[in-house]
């Protein structure tokens, strides 16, 4: 069993193009997350797939983030601010 780095379960959609394999429940895959960047996730639940216009299928999923592979610029900036440790003194 994998552990979440932030302690919460995320919801999202995976777009699967024609010919690509479908994600499987209780497996890990790489995804692009808007908050963290490129991440490794553990899928806990799959929803009902829906066709899109571009010969692809959109699958709703619930997942835990287990590892950050390539952090986004916004995430890196937030981490740098936390590491500096500056505080406002009244």
How do the helices and strands line up, and which of them pair or pack?
Layout: E1 10-17, E2 28-33, E3 37-46, E4 50-51, E5 56-71, H1 73-84
Shape: elongated
Summed up, the domain count is 1
Assembly context of the chains: single chain
Our Rg estimate from Cα atoms comes to 16 Å
Q: Count the E strands.
A: 5
Structural class: mainly beta
Tally of separate helices: 1
Strand content: over 45%
Notes on the protein architecture:
There is one protein chain. This protein has 90 residues and is mainly β. The protein has one domain (10-84). Helix content is 13%, strand content 47%. It contains one helix and five strands, in the order βββββα. It has one helix at 73-84; strands spanning 10-17, 28-33, 37-46, 50-51, 56-71. Strands 1, 2, 3, 4 and 5 form a five-stranded antiparallel sheet that branches. The model has no long low-confidence stretch (mean pLDDT 88).
Key features of this structure:
13% helix, 1 helix, five-stranded antiparallel β-sheet, mainly beta, 90 residues, single chain
Structure described in brief:
The protein is mainly beta and 90 residues long. Helices cover 13% and strands 47% of the residues. Strands 1, 2, 3, 4 and 5 form a five-stranded antiparallel beta sheet that branches.
């Amino acid at each position: 069993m994998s552990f979440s780095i932030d302690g919460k379960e995320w919801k999202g959609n995976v777009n699967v193009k024609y010919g690509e394999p479908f994600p499987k429940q209780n497996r890990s895959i790489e995804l692009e997350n808007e908050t963290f960047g490129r991440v490794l996730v553990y899928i806990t639940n799959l929803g009902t797939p829906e066709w899109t216009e571009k010969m692809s299928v959109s699958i709703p999923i619930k997942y835990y983030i287990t590892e950050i592979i390539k952090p986004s610029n916004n995430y890196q900036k937030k981490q740098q601010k936390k590491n500096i440790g500056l505080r406002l003194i009244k």
